[in-house]
Model the fold of this input.
Amino acid sequence: MPRSAAMRRFEGPDKDNPWFAKFKYSKITGLGYERGVVRRDPSAILAIDGRYYIWYTRAAHAHPPVGFDRMTKELPATPWDLADVWYATSADGHHWEEQGPAVERGPPGAYDERGVFTPGILAHDGLYCLVYQVARHPNYRCTPESIAIAWSDSPAGPWTKSPAPILEPDPSGEVDEKGIPEQAAVKGAWDSLQVHDPELLYREGKFWLYYKGEGIGYHHMESKWGVATADSPFGPYTKSPFNPITNSGHEVVVWQYDGGVAGLVNRCGPEKNTIQFAPDGVNFEIKSSLVVPPQAAGPLRIDDACNTEPLSGFSWGLSHVIPHSSHLTMQGHDPLALAEINEPWDFLVRWEHDHHRRTYI
Ligand code: AAL
Done:
């Protein structure tokens, strides 16, 4: 009997594909929905001395975000504006205790005056490294955003901040006089506007800083990922000549497997909602496609020795839920602008694999 290409795949590489996953979500205590408080963009989770640790963006706003046109020194433009990096711990991954700030915004004039947010964490050789986005004041839609690092010998801090950012946007491109990055006077490189969502991995004797780039002259949902490497976690970092290393993807989610790097490529681009794998950390190929993947997922990090299955490093974690659309509305892209959705307090939930359902149904 002749067999179609699709059935050959189905009975071949897609049969019991260990990269496929379905997810289920549950409420957590301590970091769930709270009026007036934004919690989002969690880091990976570290298990230290019998407790789980997580870092995330936290902003307590007296007023919901007002958009880039109306923001002030005190009024946030977006849910992640005027935010700090906080941390929480848990014994079981369901009940979390918010511990307080880990890294806070800098003083007036500092490179991180307006915000420190969207952290990634790496524990290496007794040192904890927090990498995160930083924003200067005033932080308009067209203001460059960079990545900085803070380090400590304890997950509870205190943290020492780098004297300057460790990764900057590409210097190419020019925004137009209205400051709208999409309408550039001169189009820049794919990461010429902002570098975001840092995740730090240690592999092959080097520090690999994965990040998301947005470019001058690109729609902000045309984001892609890049990587920069360094001999020390503090830099100097050299961007890979292969960048961008994905053609899709928003918040960066990466984990190590079999000597390579796997990633959840989410939300943006033609390859959104896929899991991809790069044996060399750079050349990613699609391994599976997903339905309703976790947003900005922070997975539990495991030891390399436990890294036996493709998804061992992506087994459960926290992710964020955005119960509104105002940050899209502000940029005029969302038809839901017409709906009355006005509860802009992003919060964290737990995700894990749904083993009770057959993957393909
Ligand atoms: C996210 C991340 C970055 C962006 C904003 C907050 O989910 O991609 O952190 O700046 O949205």
Notes: Residues 38-357 form a domain with the Tachylectin-2; Chain A fold (CATH 2.115.10.20). The two ends are 26 Å apart (CA to CA). Residues 41, 80, 117-118, 133, 196-197, 212, 250-251, 296 surround 3,6-anhydro-alpha-L-galactopyranose (CB under 6 Å).
